[in-house]
Amino acid sequence: MSEPAYKRMSVDEFLVWDDGTDTKYELIDGVPVAMAPTYGAHQIIAVNAAVALTDVLRKRPPCHVRSEAGILKPNSFRNYFQADLAVTCKPHEHGQYAVPDPLVIVEILSRSTEDHDRKIKLPVYRSIASVQEIVLIHSEMLFVEVHRRLDDTRWQVDLLVEDADVLTLDGVGFEAPVSALYANVDLGAGPTGG
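The structure assignment produced for this chain is given below.
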């Protein structure tokens, strides 16, 4: 007897789907893909960035930062990503599962997530018209990569690799030293796991 044909999920089906575990998933081309769990440095950096962003955004309501932020691929009903952080200036509405018109998206990279974040998510994030800046923060070394939209097709990439370097996000009026993102993170002499 043959197996029934596999049916890819829509975002709406995915959002009510439950596999019965605590595993977190993203939806890629209609297929749920398990996300790597976050640990230590990844979690600390995410909180440091969220707190720093929130301090600035309090002065700009309704702008706010969201963690585990739902991001939809434009013109697709089969792709739903979860960014570590995203900033929007649209008011929150009850029942919203995705960040409306994200301006800034932040991903914290580790060995287990870097390929996926760079090759799958980054091109999608760049295709979202509202996104002005994408920040990739490595959890295993002092390395921050900022992608800035110049126009509809061109992006500028800045690398911040020193404690004294300053992360500037023009789209939301944010500035913070890179050292603030890595506060209380022991990077050791090299990659240590994130």
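Interim note for the steering committee: The chain has one domain: 37-181. Residues 140 and 191 are 5 Å apart (CA to CA).
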